Amino acid sequence: MKVIAAYLLAVLGGNSAPSADNLKDILASVGADADDEKIELLLSQVKGKDITELIASGREKLASVPAGGGSVSVAAPAGGAGGGAAPAAAESKKEEKVEEKEESDDDMGFSLFD
Known about the structure:
InterPro entries: P1/P2_N_sf, Ribosomal_P1/P2, Ribosomal_P2. This protein is mainly α.
């Protein structure tokens, strides 16, 4: 993944066809190890291809991957649990909702543009 990131950084920097040395320099600048085999594999696979077309084809492939999580169903307790348990659970749910609304300070007291 770091080799791919280095390749994309090189292309973003204006080098439309980065060499293995370019990728090694980028990886060395952040203290990452450069694996020669992975670099050569990546360069052989992207040789002569446009990066925007590669990204577009990757998006198409990712669109077909299911990303939805499975839903968890919780069984309700049997009828013999007692009559007082249900109202107590309903009250605790109301309290949780109120607490969530109070804690909606998303900017954490600062802004990126101050």
